[in-house]
Amino acid sequence: MMVVAAATISSTSCIQIMMIQGSGGGYPSKSMELRWISSRSRRKNLNPNPNSRVLGSLKSKPPPLMMPIYISTDPSHINLQQLSELYSSCNHSGHRFPEVDPNTGIVEEAMDLDKLRIALSHSCVVVSVFCKPQHVDVTKTAKQIQNQENQKQMSKGFVGDLMESVMPVTPSNAKLVGFGRAVSDLGLTASIYDVMVSPSLQGMGIGTIIVKRIVRMLTSSDIYDIAALCSRKERFFFKACGFRDDILGSTTMMYTRTISTSFERDQMVTRAGRKLLLAPKLREPFASSKTSKPES
């Protein structure tokens, strides 16, 4: 069985690929699952600049050797603010042409929470992965919140710490560390978008779990034409998930219109932020209404 598949990553260089596996990884399509994952090895810091958040970079803190994660396909479990922070930490953008710092390559614009909410509501499959906050590096703002929670936990003493360590992972007491979604016409085709994993937990198989869960849920609905996009950096990951080049050799073309020099009849296309506006042609001044006096 041959399945066309792919995933959309924030990059202008996109390649359409396909997947030659029909099983989807054998993951059940239930709405939640608790499992343990382990790190095979402690990887070195791939990014020499610790202040940079280039996609695929790692923090100095290594991931734990083994940790529990919570896998959910219920969109109501997702906190939009945490999802926005995950976009930022992964240097990911929902826009095809994001505003990027030319020196660092970091996406400068924050995600619009209202548009993010709309995108989730129109996604046919949403997969989210959670783990305990102490297992993932957090931002300065999140660290302040976590320190306040730690002070509260210290007042509980040893028993409180023990209970906290044995408490099962749930979306209410955990942090969002992985995400992926798919949109579909629910009959013929589907597309995978925004597959992300927190940089400090990459390499532990979380991304593979997300992709295979999405594919499993789509194929269980008899949808096998799963289109997608990926950057050249992401090709290695998706090949490990069973993806291959499209046998038709097709590539994805994004609609983009040139500005200032593009004319539509008597109108000109001009840019206003990210939007393109169709501006009417400048009106020529009226001819003088004064009439010359007749010669005598």
UniProtKB/TrEMBL annotation:
Q: Tell me the leader sequence span.
A: none
- Provenance organism: Herrania umbratica
Q: Which domain of life is it from?
A: Eukaryota
State the PROSITE patterns in the record.
GNAT
Query: What Pfam families has UniProt attached to this entry?
Result: Acetyltransf_1 (PF00583)
- Which residues belong to any copy of the N-acetyltransferase domain? 133-270
| InterPro entries tied to this protein | Acyl_CoA_acyltransferase, GNAT_dom, GNPNAT1-like
Biological process according to GO = UDP-N-acetylglucosamine biosynthetic process
Q: Which GO terms describe its molecular function?
A: N-acetyltransferase activity
In Swiss-Prot or TrEMBL terms, this protein is called Uncharacterized protein LOC110426132 isoform X5
